[in-house]
Design goal:
Elements (H helix, E strand, L loop, with lengths): L42 E5 L6 E5 L6 E4 L4 E10 L5 E10 L5 E5 L2 E2 L5 E6 L8 E6 L11 E4 L6 E11 L5 E13 L1 E3 L3 E2 L11 E2 L10 E5 L5 E5 L2 H4 L1 E2 L9 E9 L6 E4 L5 E4 L7 E9 L2
């Protein structure tokens, strides 16, 4: 643009001038409002040592994720969100994890029909605040409340559990709750002498030894009449039964050898008729039981 002064008497000074554009040359007003979606493609979380966290629900690459840690301490989590114009925003959140892990101790851990088993509930940080305990199942327990209760009267191994709630004084009365359980074994086992895997479906289909789950590393070997091994296990307490039908065992008499590591006696072996025999292990040696079981159609 060039401005020329054609009036020579004013010494070349321009006193006033203006340019006016037509309205049609101005663009229409536009309003831009960024929006943020909560879908997994535009919102996610990051943190240091992400692989050491336990994800309870949701996912790291979404708006919602629930996590916990096995150790106490403070962690920083960063939320990332991208709007519809491709701009990313972040915000940090500080989270403090407290140590809370209930557990149960049993003394002794095997019930032999005499002395009751003492069960004690405890938490990982008892100094953090008071905690309450509710026990179950109540059938064999002296009480359902309190840190210490007593269990007795069990015939077979039983699981006992506690529901623990602890208040953390340093965090404004934060309440944490969780469950724990423990298996209390019994000294008594019952070895069947007859099973019927090919008859009507029922409890007698498998070769089971009630009470054997009390003991670890129980060895069981079953042989047919010709001395061939048809089944063997080096931890029968964990497997809990022999499926004779699955192994193709036909009707007839089979021989078993049961080797049970027993730390403290007695081991009570009860027959189907209800007669019990006590076995006391020699020092450093397991209890070895041999017998027969018949498979009937």
């Amino acid at each position: 643009m060039e401005i020329c002064d054609l009036w020579g008497s004013d010494n070349g000074f321009v006193f006033d001038w203006a340019i006016q554009f037509a309205d049609s040359l101005y663009p229409a007003e536009l309003s831009f409002t960024p929006t943020f979606g909560l879908e997994c493609d535009s919102t996610y979380w990051t943190t240091l040592e992400q692989n050491s966290h336990i994800v309870l629900d949701g996912a790291w690459n979404c708006a919602d994720v629930g996590v916990t840690m096995t150790t106490a301490g403070q962690h920083t989590y960063t939320a990332h969100a991208t709007n519809n114009f491709g701009c990313e925003y972040t915000q940090d959140v500080e989270v403090e994890f407290v140590a809370f892990s209930p557990a149960i101790d049993a003394n002794p851990d095997v019930y032999c029909g005499g002395q009751a088993v003492e069960l004690n509930a405890f938490v990982s940080d008892p100094e953090a605040g008071d905690f309450t305990v509710v026990w179950g199942p109540e059938e064999f327990l002296s009480d359902t409340l309190g840190e210490t209760v007593y269990a007795s009267g069990m015939v077979n191994p039983e699981y006992f559990n506690v529901h623990v709630v602890q208040e953390f004084d340093a965090f404004g009365g934060l309440l944490c709750e969780a469950d724990a359980d423990i298996l209390v074994g019994t000294c008594e086992i019952t070895i069947p002498n007859v099973i019927s895997p090919y008859g009507t479906s029922g409890a007698n289909d498998m070769f089971r030894i009630p009470g054997i789950e009390t003991y670890e590393n129980v060895e069981l070997v079953i042989l047919n009449r010709w001395g061939n091994v048809v089944y063997e296990s080096d931890d029968f307490g964990a497997s809990s039964f022999w499926d004779a039908e699955a192994d193709g065992a036909t009707s007839g008499v089979y021989y078993y050898k049961l080797t049970i590591p027993v730390e403290d006696g007695p081991l009570v072996v009860t027959s189907i008729a209800g007669n019990g025999v006590e076995y006391y292990p020699e020092e450093g040696k397991p209890v070895v039981l041999e017998g027969t079981v018949q498979i009937v159609d």
